[in-house]
Design brief:
It is globular and about 50 Å long. The protein contains nine helices and 14 strands. 32% of the residues lie in helices and 19% in strands. It has a single domain, classed as Alpha-Beta Barrel (TIM Barrel).
């Protein structure tokens, strides 16, 4: 049973075998994936395009805009815009995560302008690495256009977060993930991000991305007002266990739901929906029903500038 009528998911990479970043994405597949997802406890969401070749941004964003604006699909108010996760991220091993480092770019306002045009200016959320030269200028440009800037796939320091906060960044993308498996014991982005009061932390609460003690610590450090749950659903969400090639990765979906690239030793998004993530978080008994509604509904809307919900 869901905690509320439906959740808001700010990070959906695909569903039921449909990859929103695939050069083979079709309008029919996008419609099928969206319709299916919206029956699984998700009220509204942001399709997410990860670090990709430029022609994929141009093709897929334009394709998805056509679907979103077609009144016959009844997606108005359900598909809230786009999350662009990359290409302005770290290419360092671990920090780049499952993204293809060949497509990573340094912050480039002219390129971002092209992406915004291809997306019909429907980008709601942009993930960037805070330590990159020019990240603050890119953030200012994005924020001035009503886009929420989030820091992720980044080996940031406190100074980096201070600088990007001054530029208008307000969130952390899947805090605790998109990082090397080995980090300095104390001076690392997980602790820095938890401690920084200017940022709302988005966390993947699927039971695989963050162990329960880490998730509980994030809840206690940020509190219900500065926390957002995302699914980070990969294209294998809703599919049976097996081996899949998605998001430029050869990866394995275990019976437990863990989806990982054994060669890179990283997760490749999650196989969970928001309803499953919220149920896992509720099972940790760290938040009240009202607080769960905040982290799964009202906080996501507020972060991307949608008020009154």
């Amino acid at each position: 049973m869901s905690l509320v009528s439906g959740f808001i998911d700010l990070q959906v990479n695909g569903f039921l075998g449909v990859d929103f970043s695939s050069p083979d994405l079709t309008e029919a597949d996008f419609v099928r994936a969206c319709r299916a997802l919206l029956t699984q406890g998700t009220t509204a969401f942001l399709p997410t395009v990860i670090t990709s070749a430029l022609d994929v941004y141009e093709r897929n964003l334009s394709l998805m805009v056509r679907v979103m604006t077609d009144a016959s699909n009844a997606f108005q108010g359900r598909i809230l815009g786009f999350h662009i996760e990359g290409p302005f991220i770290s290419r360092e091993p671990g920090a780049v995560g499952a993204h293809n480092p060949a497509y990573v770019r340094t912050p480039d306002i002219a390129l971002l302008e092209k992406i915004l045009t291809w997306a019909d200016h429907r980008v709601r959320l942009l993930t960037v690495a805070a330590e990159l030269p020019g990240a603050d200028e890119l953030a200012r440009f994005a924020v001035a256009r009503g886009i929420t800037v989030s820091i992720g796939h980044s080996l940031f320091t406190t100074a980096d977060l201070d600088r990007l906060a001054d530029a208008g960044a307000t969130a952390l993308t899947h805090l605790g993930n998109g990082l090397p498996n080995l980090l300095p014991r104390h001076d690392n982005p997980l602790w820095v991000g938890l401690a920084h009061d200017a940022y709302t932390a988005m966390v993947i609460a699927d039971g695989h991305h963050l162990p329960a003690p880490v998730l509980k610590t994030a809840v206690r450090a940020k509190g219900a007002d500065k926390l957002i749950v995302v699914s980070d659903a990969s294209p294998v969400a809703g599919l049976p266990p097996g081996r899949y090639h998605v998001l430029d990765n050869d990866a394995i979906l275990e019976p437990s739901g863990r989806f990982h690239n054994p060669e890179k030793q990283c997760l490749v998004g999650s196989s969970a929906t928001m309803a499953q993530c919220m149920a896992h978080l509720a099972g940790l008994n760290t938040l009240s029903r009202e607080e769960l509604t905040k982290v799964g509904v009202s906080n996501p809307l507020r972060l991307i500038g949608i008020r009154g919900a």
